[in-house]
Design brief:
Layout (H helix, E strand, L loop, with lengths): L15 H11 L3 H9 L2 H14 L6 H7 L1
Length: 68
């Protein structure tokens, strides 16, 4: 079975290769979908960004508390 990719807002007809790469960038992975359904997506993003910026979970206590 093949998978099909659809875009939510089709625009003008472009090169199919560029459409595929754009669709791949816009596809949300399963983890993000699950977090988004919880209603805590922004809080989760803040925790992830804090950790990426600092490299230390201990420096993200405020963000983690808001996520809980």
């Amino acid at each position: 079975m093949g998978s099909t990719t659809t875009t939510s807002c089709p625009t003008t007809r472009e090169d199919p290769a560029s459409n595929n790469s754009l669709a791949a960038e816009n596809d949300e992975d399963e983890w993000d979908k699950r977090i988004r359904r919880t209603g805590c997506f922004k809080e989760n993003e803040r925790v992830l960004i804090c950790h990426a910026d600092t490299g230390d979970w201990r420096k993200c206590v405020r963000e983690m508390a808001a996520f809980r």
